[in-house]
Amino acid sequence: MEVEIEVREGWWAAALPALVLALLGLALLGRAVTPEGGGLLTPSDWRLRAAERAYREERAALREEAEALAALLDRAPDPVRAGLAADRIAQRALDGAPALALQREALAGAAEGVRLWAMGGGSREAAVEALERAVSLLGGRSEP
Q1: Fewest 10 Å CB contacts: which of 20, 21, 32, 82?
Q2: Domain locations in the chain?
Q3: Alpha-carbon separation of residue 80 from 50, 94, 115, 116 (angstroms)
């Protein structure tokens, strides 16, 4: 069985509108994602932007963890939840942006204070003070 495909002379006239629409779509997409300078980014600019994005995301995640600790302090002592939160925060403190190392350590210390309070081995006031220190280093407000 033979199959023959016949291409007519005006095929480009039919493909031209689709090509124009594709190029227009790419131009609009490029305009939407181009940074404010409008120029090309060098590889170091891309790395800088990626590092800044990672910093913002990690800082937001640390603030969420601080909020979770504050919520634990507002409830009756729950050693299991406090222990899980402290373990999660301690694991997160092992890796991250170097600029947030101090904040991660302070939050890990606050989590350990909340764990001790929940287990009956520490005071709530000490846990609150450690959490307030961590929140002040993160630059946000969290009410325990």
Answers
A1: 32
A2: 61-138
A3: 36, 22, 9, 11
Place of tokens 């325990």: 144
Provide Rg for the chain, Cα atoms. 27
* pLDDT score of 135 more than 50: yes
Evaluate if pTM is beyond 0.85.
no
Residues in contact with 62: Cβ distance below 8 Å, sequence separation at least 6, in sequence order: 92, 100, 103, 104, 107, 138
Q: Where residue 42 falls among pLDDT bands split at 50, 70, 90? A: confident
Other C-beta atoms closer than 10 Å to the C-beta of 91 total 10
102 Cβ contact partners less than 8 Å away, ≥ 6 residues apart: 137
pLDDT: which is higher, 48 or 7: 48
